[in-house]
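Write out this protein's structure.
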Amino acid sequence: MKFLFFTDSHIKTRTPIRRIGNYEEDILSKLVFLLVTAQREKVDFIVCGGDLFDLPNPSFRLASRIMKLISSTGIQWFHVLGNHEILGHNPDSYDMGVLAFFEHLPNFKIVKETTVNDNYLKFIHYRHGIEEESAPWKTSEEPNSRTIIFAHAMVTPNPVPFVHITPNQLKKKTKANLVLLGHYHDPWANIVLHSQIDDKEKKTLSEGLGKILTSSKEESVSMSMDFFSKMTLFLNPGSVARISLLAHNLRRTPRSILVNIDDDFVTITSIPIKTAKMSSRIFKVEEAMLEKKWGDRIDEFLAAMENVKVEGIEASTLVINAAKVRAGVDSLEEIPDDQRKVLDFALQRIERLENPEE
């Protein structure tokens, strides 16, 4: 059995605020690359781990373009519902969006489970609180049964300050051999053992997984079927989309995962998306770095003022007066444009600090 997995492409027509160029065309070029890769590798099926679209109801023009691309390959497409594709965090609402039309494609399916070549496949669609439930993650206890879970859920490698679950917590709920994940946009991998194995083989696999998720080239890692049957491998290739200008989006290359399972070995190949542009070509990097510099300085200034009480004068007034003194002018209108931009940014930051709930 051979299949291609990718997740979180967040296709939409509107270009995110920190990006430059045409976001829709950039993402579509990645999707075309993924479909061409699937055809080249002669996969049995493709799995999207959720959030193909950024909204449940994108434009019909955009939806039509995606439908034509998916149907053109004839390759079976299994779809996991992501939180952006449903209403009210309820997976039963997906047919109120464009995915209802996709189900009319002969090779597009939204299912909860299926079997392919004696491999049991389980699809966990996003819904509120899915991380805390047990039943969706439960798998067969029968010996020699291979189970692969595809889930759109907030599974993270380490604890984070929002609703989530870690592999160590999930090991009590599932004995799946492989769990492929979407929703959390950073790439990561983790091995949870259910039986004693050779430490050398585990170390080799761990190092190999780290390499394939960071390399800019196509890389593979293999393991014996005996090893595969004694563990749960959690794997998230990271989102195809890079929407926000965060540090990890500046460093990483969007990728897909090719999984090949035969009687003796399991091979996992990371395939970087060659049509993905360098971060410097899609993000307003210099503007963001400048704003970060301003932000750091403003934070230092506000921290220094924490214990300073000036009766009858608000922080914003102090900042405006300081800006006028620095510019050597008497009114806001006379402040030079470059300094006014910094001032406006500072005032916005102060407003957010003073009114955190707005």
